[in-house]
Amino acid sequence: MHIPGAISGRGRCAVVTLAAVLCTAMHSGAFAPTHTPPEHSLAGGPVPPPVNGPSLDWKPCPGAPGFECAAASVPLDHRAPGGRAIELAVIKRKATDPGHRVGTLFYNPGGPGSSGTEDLPLSYELFPEEIRRRFDIVSWDPRGVGSSTAVRCFDSPQEAYEWAARNAGGFPVGAQEREVWFDGYTDLARRCEKRDPELLRHVSTADTARDLDRLREAVGEQRLSYFGVSYGTLLGATYANLFPGRVRAMVLDANIDPEAWFDHGTKIEPPLTMFQRTDADLGAAATLRQFLDLCGRTDTEHCAFSAGSPSATRAKYEQLLRRLERRPESEGVEQEGWTYAVTVGTTFEHLYTVDPSWTELAEVLEDLWQGRTPDEPPSPPAPVPYPGFEQIEAIRCSESPNPRDPLRYPSLADFGYRRAGDLGRLIPWSTSACAVWPASAADPYRGPWNRPTAPLLVVNSTFDPVTPHQGAVAMTRELANAHLLTIKGYGHSALTNVSLCADEYESRYLIDGTLPPAGTACTQDIPPFAPVNPIEPEGGLDTGGGGLAKGDRVPSRAGAATG
To answer: Which residues, in sequence order, are CB contacts of 296 under 8 Å at separation 6+?
Structure first.
């Protein structure tokens, strides 16, 4: 799940927006082959009759060797299938061992608003090798996003970037920046409402879940196999409860609490923002403390920002932020736009992926400590693609309740600071666009979340900066038949923060239904600030007494060490 503070470029050419940037024995033999007759679901109930899926004319994807692309036509409003149709961009990578193919695995990378057609070619090698061997992996651009029928409120990428450049980097500080901030989002809301008001009301998670069911039918699967990351876990939970008899298997990695996302289905204005309800601020603060403590336990060769001990490194970070908070850019070294708010946002975005982002963050912070301007990432090659800032807001603002009074957000940021420090100031501004958003979802799904399904696998690290472990505990409790696999580690999602132990459990589960024993915990394979990136660190598999034993096979994961 993307939270504001994610920064593409900094300094004078910075574009920073909130949108750019959530049993003690092994169970075996749980799954029938995906093409077996569908008289009953794995949960024991009847399988609902299939819908008529769209036809898919697969062709090689331009610029993505080995992948095939297609377009699918679906109704804008699934309650009116004869009305306006929209298009979904779809991408596929075939199983590398077709003779032992299990079926199709659908993948959603999160967001909301992430493009599956862009992400899958980049993330494909991060999937466990056994999954790549046994499944066709299919992803898509959800409605409203990317190359599908998209929410697009600007005439050109240049116009979109010019709009984004008006706002302060990271989050607004002070009355003047707040006024500019909300003026900008009010302007964005007007643009979007003018462009395609009908589409704005049909980009909810439930709409996308209904699209997913049509795509499942289009590839010939009686039941869905699914891998969802971050916001993709909410999509998976929504699908599982809309179509409980059509679920074969789901891996839900880096989990959002569905009840918190929808504020328990209440119709009244919420006292907190969505990310505060899901404890994203607390998760971010806890992960930052781990970053600083681990950095302080090593030397500056391995963590440039280390002050020699955890307490000294935490104090150094606090001093740096207070210095930036007090100093106007015109005083001393300007450091090319590295304000207090930009630095907080940069800290947050780098907590997502341990390797290499934690090392990079340490270098940025040390540059700022020394009064140097950190290196900027290279400018993207021309032509610059359409950024789609508004697509994230269109999805989450249409269905997840957030305070509608812009004047409340400064006090929400103060509350966040009191309970989560500087990152707590950032988090509430991430959904501030929702205060002025013009559209609500026409047909959302807000629960219940406990409809009987086949067994589902919930995966989460203990220190996730945006979807904290308590969200996975809540997801497991709220779903009817979910099983939790904990990863003792850091960062946002097991897919990008490697645990071969988790890979093994996910592969066993997706292929034949074998679940980890209750209470199983894995560790990650690339420790923060490690001098080397070990493939299997000594003592690296902590299974809580019931997982992989010494000598069990640990699969290779091509490309895993690259993050």
So the answer is: 303, 306, 307, 308, 309, 310, 311, 312, 313, 314
